[in-house]
Amino acid sequence: MFALKTRRMRFLWYGGLLLLVALLSFALPKIANAGLFSSDSTPQAASPEPAVPANPYDAEPKPLTILDCAKCHPYQFGGLKQNGGKHRFDCQDCHEVIHAYNPLRNNYAEIMPKCSNCHELPHGEAHSTCLTCHTNPHTPRVVPASGPLDGQCASCHTTQITELKQFPSMHSEQNCQDCHHTKHGNIPNCSECHEPHFASQEFSTCTSCHPVHKPLQISLQGQTDMRTCSGCHGDVYGKWSKTPSKHGQVACTFCHENHGEIPQCNKCHTPPHGEKLLKMFPDCLTCHLDVHDMPSKEKRKP
Q1: Given this model, what pLDDT does residue 280 score?
Q2: Would you state the pLDDT for residue 4?
Q3: Is there a contact between 260 and 204 (Cβ–Cβ < 8 Å)?
Q4: Contact in structure between 95 and 113 (CB atoms under 8 Å)
């Protein structure tokens, strides 16, 4: 009898324990979400719900913002964001009339803003139809390099066209779009067509000597890396870079101020010999042999 009573009490005890665990597992998440176990002792204020009028027509609507427009017009918004240029302002500054298109009235052209509302003719009378080149007013900086611009470059870029004609080179034989491809305003890298003068040369240095539209009118700069000369004058550079004479301490551009210039010795040197000897040997190189590798008592560079 005692054993039966003991088993009964044990059963009730275990059952009560299981019931308590079940109740806690259900209640604890709700208690935690209510913030009762928060480490912050400050009572957690509930976020106020926005007031919704019983009749929505009792509310005063707010003006549309740019982001409101973007919800329905993401393509136009993305274009302005990436390539909008000076067109990145409030949509309704251009679109004064919105959501008024009616296919029955065919009034699309009527409600669309006109470029002339803000712009005059920046490219002159010859180019008065803006959308021929600026095909998307939301990406005005994206202008195709071909199509309507074919053969039209001289209308604006007169200096460049004049240089190409006045100073013929292989660049003069190319169409503008061969270099300025992809889009209008594209500045190509010289490496697209050319090899460097030496292995580690940066292509950003090309234009310091070669004006792009008259590349054979070479303008040497005092800071020009002398290895640049080795690209065409390899034999001369090889001798000059190893000569023990004082000429090996002078940069190419010091003597050759202009590309192709052959300077006279008296440009730097006063007559080092008497008048009688100079009359017998008027050409300095009769004795000094090679201006880039003159005879010297010093040891030759390795």
Answers
A1: 84
A2: 47
A3: no
A4: yes
Read off the tokens for 65. 């913002």
Q: Are 148 and 133 in contact (CB under 8 A)?
A: yes
Q: What's residue 41's pLDDT?
A: 46
Q: Which amino acid is at 109?
A: A
- State the pLDDT at residue 165: 93
**Quick one: which of 209, 212, 223 has its CA closest to 258?**
209
By C-alpha distance, which of 193, 192, 185, 150 is closest to 169? 193
Task: Return the pLDDT at 6.
Answer: 57
Other C-beta atoms closer than 10 Å to the C-beta of 51 total: 6
Pick out the chain residues at pLDDT < 50: 2-4, 36-41, 43
Cβ atoms of 298 and 244 within 8 Å: the answer is yes
- DSSP code string of 182-230: SSTT----GGGT---SSTT--GGGGGGTS-TTSTTS----TT--GGGGG
Q: Output the pLDDT for position 240.
A: 86
Contact 230, 292 (CB under 8 A): no
Assigned token pair, 151: 């053969």
Contacts with 84 (C-beta within 8 Å, 6 or more apart), sequence order: 138, 139, 140, 141
At a CB cut-off of 8 Å and minimum separation 6, what does 176 contact?
145, 153, 157
